[in-house]
Design a protein that fits this description.
Rossmann fold; 48% helix; 7 helices; alpha/beta
Length: 128
Amino acid sequence: MRALLDTHTLLWWLSDDPQLTPKARKFISATANSCIVSAVSAWEIATKVRIGKLPQAAEVIVDFASQMEQERFEVLPISLDHALRAGLLPGPHRDPFDRMLISQAQAEALPIVGNDRIFDSYGVRRIW
């Protein structure tokens, strides 16, 4: 099974954070599953490190691509279709990073591994 990791899920996995549920941990660690990390997660982490909201993630962005490869995570680029979908996504949710993850999950027919219930209101299946 393939699934898109929410940014906080990625960070919690990399830091072995106990907030990651056993179900999410099991999904990510199963070799039969493919974990997808959006390019928007790299953008979100880098932005939040830069503005001081996520200083503990500074090491993650130093060599993001190598870390993803080491974890066997596939990186999903942002396509023109993803960008248009995110921009046209209805509803009041204003977080541009979440909007991109929602649009990518919809476009690629991927569930999201994450705890943010906002995804549910957009018809995106969550693994949590």
